Amino acid sequence: MASYDRFRAGGSPRPLKAGDTWWYAAVAGEASGSFHTRVRTRTRRACLGAVLVLTVVYAGLVLTATGRRWGDTATTGRRADTVAATLLRDYPSLAGLTTLSLVLGCVLLLAVGLIRKRYAHTGAAAGAIVTALALTGLLQRYAPRPRLLDTGGALLPSGFPSAQTTLALGIALGLALVVPYRLRGLAVGAATLWAVAIGAYTIAAGRHRPGDVIAAALVVLTVHCGLLALLARRGKVRPGARRGPTPAGLFATLALLLVAAAGLGAGIWLLGPTLALPAGGPYDPAELQLAHRCGQALAAGVVAAAGLLSLALLRRVELDGAPTPYRLGGPFVEATGAPREGELVGPFTEDLDHEIS
Length: 357
Prior knowledge:
The protein is an all-alpha fold. Helix content is 63%, strand content 2%. The strands form two sheets. The protein has a two-stranded antiparallel sheet. A two-stranded parallel ribbon has the order 3-4.
């Protein structure tokens, strides 16, 4: 076997063909492998980080009395928050619109993937959503937690994490797998803002505590980062174009950044006074309103930050697969044969009379 017939460095599955050269193997093969490794490493670290933060949130907000009291106060404070109470009273159809928007979001994700003929990526996005929902159901049913009883003595079902937020954010992050590269910022940014609104509604309506929405965002982020790490391991990623985002995509990303920064900043600022509330009531309505707004801010900030982290992990990363192989042709290559369809040939022509002066 000649030197130019050996396999590429980096474990490329395709052996060199006639017309490929040793420097192509050394440069393109190793660069491709190192790019896959970088993407896999950072997505795997993000996955492990999301699991760690989820564990801290679960231990702090579910297993401790202080965390449960904070969640109960934030949920009870929705009645003291006149803005949220008035909005829900004047627009009772928001519950139906929330369910309808979740159905339309699933249809949109599937439609975009099928229209663009990205069947594998559409299946991967759908599988990630199903996996996140399954993990949410398992945590709701089997995660150890104190027994919470209502006034009649019946065991209250756990809402940790929120299934609605899991589905909404799963759709938002799943769009990154099926939309064109240039529209990724717009699609993921706008859909994540919609997921923020879904989470805020569930808290305002009293269906979930703020910790449930935060945990849902972390579950989705864990599954999404794990899927990206798997795609990188299988060589399904490649460097993307260095062009900047579209103006609409930049606007959506900046809006998401503003929501994340404002939500996390305001929530952390208000967290101290709300955690310091005494164990026994009654509480002042202003204190309840403050706790509710603190929970809303933290939940919105975490959901928005999850969308931003997904965009950051996929920055200049294309998910369309490996690039078209490049072959040298010309009088220096014997028996190269006709190039395959879509395969680049160059820099020399196939003219055997070509000479280098």
